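Response to reviewer comment R2.3. The reviewers asked that we include at least one raw input/output pair. We reproduce the pair for Type I-E CRISPR-associated protein Cas7/Cse4/CasC here without editing.
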Amino acid sequence: MDRTPRFIDIHVVQPIPYANLNRDDTNSVKTMLYGDALRTRISSQSWKRAIREHFQDALGDSALRTRRIGERVAEVLRGRGWDKELADRAGAHVAAGSSIKWEVAKGKDKQPITNKVLTNALVYLPEDAVEELADIAEAHKDAITVDFTGKEKAKDKPESALKGKIDRILIKRNGVINLFGRMLAEIDQADVDGAVQVAHAFTTHTTEVELDYFAAVDDVTAARNDETGSGHMGTAEFSTGTLYRFATVDLKELTKNLSDDSEIAVDAARELAGQFLLSFIESLPQAKKNSTAPHSLPHLVHVAVRSDRPLSFAAAFEEPVRSAQHGGYVARSVEGIDAYSHAANTLLGSGRVLHAAHASLHFDKLEHLGERRPSFEALVAAAVAVALAEAPQ
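Raw output as returned:
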């Protein structure tokens, strides 16, 4: 049996107080049916954004995802002393100069806006690459003589000669992109397969959506006391619950994305994988944060290094957890993780798990989740040390 580390799985049990971390298009709590029971759900896209922002802040290595790359280039040029009109014109020409299809932005009156270009696809590139795009505009400043309306003749388009240069910048990567991946089919070699997979979080038990009626006071009316009623009334949806969260890091994919030199790739992978796991633990979607402040901690984090395949424990909660005798779902959710881990790994063969450990607030008798570590940092450091002791083959 191959015992080369391939995946780092991370499992989290986290109670969330009264909140709406992730809303749908009607501002309603997202839900799902699982085991014929209604659960609160937090989409993977929502939590991945929170993870990515936490990850970037921790490493100081940012990536930018936008259709408005021309405007960002114009901002940089204005910071270099360019006149606003010329900077906007240059930004538009740069945005239209790659292999990505584009359109001229339109105002509220549906009329085209001169010197404002939107790419049809989201551009995803390292933040510092914007400076390089601005350098291209700087080098061709004398050629940028006409406003961009989208109707220029080929001979008037300075961007037509810059396509290759701009494309070479748009395919650049940094750690964030190597980890999370990038889809940009219109430029050769721009696509990057993501090395992390993040599941939708869901409550381990049945939940109900609650409606909160609220009113806002008009301060002038309240002071004068000359009218009755509030200045504004409305309702909002919230829910509470204990979430199960899961993600996995594909070490082979990550090292492949990083470098052809295996030693360099593994060194970089240690930093990226470790910070991803910490960001997964500590991040939280920010919807409604000012009115709910739902900043809870995970009560259990379990990490396993596997040689075979990722293994989610979501099926442990296909039958919804029932509350304990005196209320609460956390303890029984943790027990469910412990029992399911034992059953699933026995069925698959325990030799596939190369390392397992956990960190928790107050659970001392977990038998099947490996050694208890004193902190999240210690938990992650031990797992990454085992997983990346040598390059995956």
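DSSP finds twelve helices and 14 strands in the chain. Residues 61 and 175 are 7 Å apart (CA to CA). Further pairs are available on request from the corresponding author.
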